[in-house]
Amino acid sequence: MRIAVDAMGGDQAPRSVVEGAVLAAQEYPQAEIMLVGHEAQIKQESPATLPGNIRIVHAEDKISSDDEPVRAVRRKKQSSMVVAGQLVKNGEADAMISAGNTGALMATGLLVIGRLPGIERPALAPMLPTMDGKGVLALDLGANMDATAEQLLQYAVMGSIYRSKVNGMDKPRVGLLNVGTEEAKGNEVVKQAYALMQEAPIHFVGNVESRDIFQRNCDILVCDGFVGNILLKTMEGTAGTIFGVLKEEFTRSFMSKLAAAVLKPGLVRFKKKLDYTEHGAAPLLGVNGLVLKSHGSSDANAIKNGIRQGLHVLEQNVVGSIQEEISRK
User: Fold this and answer.
1) Cβ proximity of 291 and 123 under 8 Å
2) Which of 243, 251, 193 minimizes the C-alpha distance to 221?
3) Which domains does the chain have, with CATH numbers?
4) What's the top EC group for this one (predicted)?
């Protein structure tokens, strides 16, 4: 299984990306990892001898976080992200992963790799943390700001296939994010999507509210990218604030430091439940190849876990299963 890794994407690139790729190569010897980026910069961050299942694919340019996504993809043909996408498009790689510009990665998926037949718009599908550790797959969380009812239905179908194949869920529950659980709630698009999902071959449990997500009120959460991205950033900010306040309180005095020492194992477990690096990357479902987006601030552990996730998704043939299910409609 061949995975192209955008070595120049992310806040800590290329150092953290190279370190993560080395960790993954050592742990998963069956993988062939292609580090795509400026060769000299990659070698500068690499150990003297790279594992035998890593090779460098030179890309002269890179897409920065400030670049306008579509323009950058069209003009920077030799950027690491676009070159990685071309490797997938040409069948030289089975998947690609990047921690770089999210909008540019979406554009790479659409303009370079292309959509699956029958899919109107791909969806970014990160795993939201839950208290039981199983997570909620949420889509779309940023690829498309608007969505039609039919597109929301496609998100539900793709999410169901992903959770079934990757997470081994027999009948994953699909929830439609809304302002209330009643069928009549929401705007017209959500109401139309509700009716479509009731008739679809999925386990639809109706409307769900965001306040219950941490308790895993569904296994797949469906919404448009505008609402979903606000939800994601709110959850990330809330988690960061909680840990910041706890750190401040537990270092306030000698007694509080003693209390922190006693509570540390429980706090570590709690933080791990809310840690995005444990999942590593979010798939862009609906493109004609496996594309994974890592968080911009991903460290080596997050990159390694993203590669691990990519290998698992490839083993389950998720892209092929989505294509097969959509073609039946």
Assistant:
1) no
2) 193
3) 1-119+280-329 (3.40.718.10), 127-278 (3.40.718.10)
4) transferase
